[in-house]
Amino acid sequence: MTKNELNYEILLEVTNVLNLQRDWEGLWKAVTKQIQRVVPWDRAGILLYDPQQDGFRFYAVVTNAPPALRTDTIVPRVGSAMGWVYDHKQVHVRPNLHQQQVFLEDKYYLEEGLGRMINFPLLVHDECLGTLNIGSRQTGEPDPDDVKFLQLVATHIATAIAQVRAYEEIKRLSEQLKRQNEYLAEEVKLSRNFGTMVGQSPAFRHVLDLIRAVAPTSTTVLLLGETGTGKELLARAVHDGSPRHHKPFIRVNCAALPGGLVESELFGHERGAFTGASAQRPGRFELANGGTLFLDEIGEMPLEAQAKLLRVLQDGMVDRIGSTASVPVDVRIVAATNAHLQDAIKKGTFRSDLFYRLHVFPVSIPPLRERREDIPLLADHFLAQAAAKLKRRHLKLGRQSLERLLEYSWPGNVRELQSLIDRAVILSTGDTVEIDEAFFPKTSLSPAPSVPVLETTPTTLHQLEHEHIIAVLNRTGWRIYGPQGAAAQLGLNPETLRSKIRKLGLKKPSPTLST
Ligand SMILES: Nc1ncnc2c1ncn2[C@@H]1O[C@H](COP(=O)(O)OP(=O)(O)OP(=O)(O)O)[C@@H](O)[C@H]1O
């Protein structure tokens, strides 16, 4: 067999091995054994370029001597032969390492007793993935035919590596898609006709003007407003009006996540990062990549998670829990809160540096009581929605009912109005929906008798809120969820109510035994 025939045969075998194997250790042993038949070597290794480290990581290595370089070493691009090959996309030969030690890895090769080193670029479509390094104890110029042959082998190896990487990328993307689907299915269940925004009052129109102006940019938006004023609806409007609208809009309710899970939900985790982390899981930051992340109730985020969030906002990199490598993300942040963040900063529960990162474009949403002109429009809108859901047509609101709606102070804002209309439609029999006094929560000044009553008249908003919540909870028998539950009556998100109950330290009174 001529040398050419042998080379051809070996190349075929190498390609077959590369196509068959999935395990790189095994693969590399098989490939190097084949190469040995043409070009003797004493060290054969592959290093791949890692852009985050601007260096090369070992991928596979076989050596006849105890290795002087550990396989977890990162060889920097600058100053190494691999870096030269990577930058020039050309083969580099050092025929005599004893006489010529130009690169930083050469002294290690000498320690292993090597005399000659050849580095080949691993090229795919003109992109260099890393290098194939063939070292030998012998010195002297290598046979140019051998170099040509090894360059061909390197091209096949590079293609196989690109395939493995593409396969891993597909796996990662399909995992991400699976998570996005789970998330979207959850969202569809929760969503209540988002999209239509109703309001003609100057105050609300001003808000819409601000949203329209900021939406097309990538600026961070901070939505400030009482509960139920439409912060989430506006966050979606920011996303829909941006060039990111065809990418995901991912919502995180910072108040609803259990403390220990916030970081894993936001930033993801590696397999085995903590007990129960049975599989690798991307966080919501990664799910939102290219799109918008809506951080609802940001004021409720635990301090440790705030520190991590700040880091992501500063350098655009996410560290999954349990991982050493950072993942770059491109995410627009829209945050919302009904809390007074400056007070939280004073109390030490919110980081001031994070506040300034978020407070780039604040938008204050006025409460419903400050834009009463919107009440008739919103009432009609919700009436039409409820009628469509319940398949009832020609519903209209009684005149007195509308007056009552206009007089009420709406502590729960638009959501409270929506829940009230829903209830009124369910309870109405004819075409005219009537809303009488019984629909409005009794004021906090007349709590149910079993509730401990404050000795004095409440003086602060906080006390008022505290009492009002207790009163409604007692009236609903401490039922939080459902159309007759306390959350609906207070116009609050059930999770927000649960968090308030926790924060205020409210406990369901235990039933008293009558003697
Ligand atoms: N201008 C509006 N037009 C139509 N519907 C609205 C409007 N504002 C709010 N809503 C509706 O009111 C409900 C509450 O709105 P949303 O959830 O956006 O409020 P929020 O401020 O995010 O509440 P929370 O602070 O409790 O999270 C939603 O069902 C939303 O569709």
Automatic annotation (TrEMBL):
Domain of life: Bacteria
PANTHER family for the chain: PTS-DEPENDENT DIHYDROXYACETONE KINASE OPERON REGULATORY PROTEIN-RELATED, TRANSCRIPTIONAL REGULATORY PROTEIN
Designated name of the protein: Formate hydrogenlyase transcriptional activator
GO MF term set: ATP binding; sequence-specific DNA binding
Residue ranges of domain Sigma-54 factor interaction in the record: 197-426
InterPro entries: AAA+_ATPase, AAA_lid_NorR, GAF, GAF-like_dom_sf, Homeodomain-like_sf, HTH_Fis, P-loop_NTPase, Sigma_54_int
Lineage: Bacteria, Pseudomonadati, Nitrospirota, Nitrospiria, Nitrospirales
Species: Nitrospira tepida
Pfam families according to UniProt: AAA_lid_14 (PF25601), GAF_2 (PF13185), HTH_8 (PF02954), Sigma54_activat (PF00158)
Keywords associated with the record: Activator, ATP-binding, DNA-binding, Nucleotide-binding, Transcription, Transcription regulation
